[in-house]
Design brief:
7-stranded antiparallel beta sheet; 13% helix; Methylamine Dehydrogenase, Chain H; 4-stranded antiparallel beta sheet; disordered N terminus; mainly beta
Length: 435
């Protein structure tokens, strides 16, 4: 019932609303109290997460020239000086050391991610490649008006020769190494001469299609042609190399060409080809249609890759059709599969609500700590999706004397127990982690 006898003093004054509102100081005090309560809970949750799973631990660190990493089934190569390469097994033990005849100018180094069989050209014109298993290594470089090729097997020289034809311009040179010891070398000069080298001598020659890429086993050459590609077979017969086009397919290849690097993530062993939209081809034509999965680099051995979307990842072999899927917590950034498809190393970012992150960064006491704390992490999953181990990528807090990171990359061992990682920043090092 409405009380008509209420006094005027009983009615709220407009200024009372402003007086009743909490002050800015009170707001800040409430947030600070909430933070004091929340911070220990975050720390405890982080500790529980770290203790709940095995963590990778730093077991080795070695100086390197740049962060190039050639991951193979039996180990990995790094470059420790301009013309020198070191091969280590997946325990981090050095197996052999190679010295090429090329030395690039000071301050000019090769850069991005490198995979087995990838051609890498440095400003000194040095290109190099490792076979899928890592036992064969080849380097090609300029030598006056000629091209010099050096080949090693298990660290021992097996060939050092000059290609016969001189050139009148400085060409780009590429090299491709196979497990059986064969090496292909081609140049973009004139009509793209191509040679095959066995045991230190030229056994066949031919011509290479411009911008082509050779499959890991040397059986197929694929060339991007606009919105499609040309699929061709490669054979050697009586001193001649024959590259025979078979058909034209639809779809873009995952081939990146930079001044220092050609990265192949489309051609698999056995002549299988995977387009960016997920379609699979082989010598007979298309095997399966496109799908919604994005895919990452080839695993050593070139039989598996890792595909992913926003919430899930899939270890997949276009060669056999074998696949398994796992869900990823946090932001899914892809990752890598191991050579036999048993493990996947997921690359993720922990999810923290933006308003909470802004609050933490706005606190002077916590701002510096959170700026140094990386929310990225690597998580090892074992088939059929069991989470086995974690490596938090807060390297500035984990690696002594590392104060700045410019670039880094990594690759897991076939059994998942080792991660080889190259880092450049205030220092350039190869880091080996194990669990």
């Amino acid at each position: 019932m409405h009380d008509s006898h209420a006094c005027p003093e009983d009615k709220p004054h407009p200024l009372d609303a402003r007086a009743a509102a909490p002050s800015t100081t009170a707001h800040r005090r409430a947030w600070l109290i909430a933070l004091v309560v929340l911070a220990p809970l975050l720390v405890l949750a982080g500790c529980w997460w770290c203790w709940h799973l095995p963590n990778y631990h730093l077991v080795g660190r070695y100086p390197i020239q740049d962060y190039s990493l050639l991951a193979c089934t039996d180990g990995f190569y790094t470059r420790e000086s301009p013309g020198q390469f070191v091969f280590r097994d997946w325990n981090g033990q050095e197996r052999w050391r190679l010295a090429t005849a090329a030395t690039p100018p000071p301050g000019q180094h090769a850069t991005p991610r490198v995979f087995p069989g990838v051609r890498l050209r440095t400003p000194s014109s040095l290109s190099y490649a490792a076979s899928p298993d890592g036992h064969v290594f080849a380097a090609v470089m300029g030598a006056g008006m000629r091209t010099r090729v050096q080949v090693w097997r298990d660290g021992r020289p097996t060939g050092d020769l000059l290609l016969p034809e001189p050139f009148l311009m400085v060409p780009q040179r590429w090299v491709h190494a196979l497990d059986n010891g064969r090496v292909y070398v081609w140049e973009n000069a004139f009509d793209w001469p191509l040679v095959a080298i066995d045991n230190g001598r030229i056994v066949a020659s031919g011509h290479f299609p411009a911008l082509g890429v050779i499959s890991p086993d040397g059986s197929v050459v694929a060339t991007q042609t606009g919105a499609g590609f040309t699929y061709a077979t490669l054979t050697v017969h009586e001193g001649s190399i024959h590259i025979t086009p078979r058909y034209t397919g639809i779809g873009a290849l995952s081939i990146m060409r930079l001044p220092e690097l050609t990265l192949n993530s489309s051609l698999f062993t056995g002549g299988y080809l995977l387009t960016q939209d997920g379609a699979v081809y082989n010598a007979a034509g298309r095997v399966s249609a496109a799908n919604a999965w994005r895919h990452e680099a080839l695993a050593p051995g070139q039989r598996y890759t890792l595909q992913f979307d926003e919430t899930h990842s899939r270890v997949y072999s276009p060669v056999t059709g074998d696949a398994w899927t796992y869900a990823v917590s946090g932001v899914n950034k892809g990752g890598d599969a191991t050579s036999d498809g048993r493990f996947a190393l997921a690359y993720c970012t922990a999810h923290i609500p933006p308003h909470l992150m802004n609050l933490l960064l706005g606190m002077p006491m916590l701002s510096d700590m959170f700026k140094r704390l990386s929310l990225d992490y690597l998580a090892l999953y074992e088939r059929p999706g069991r989470l086995r181990a974690v490596l938090r990528l807060d390297l500035l807090n984990r690696v002594p004397h590392l104060t700045r990171i410019d670039d880094y990359w990594w690759f897991p061992s076939p059994d998942g127990h080792t991660i080889a990682m190259t880092v450049t920043g205030n220092t350039s090092e190869c880091l080996v982690f194990r669990w």
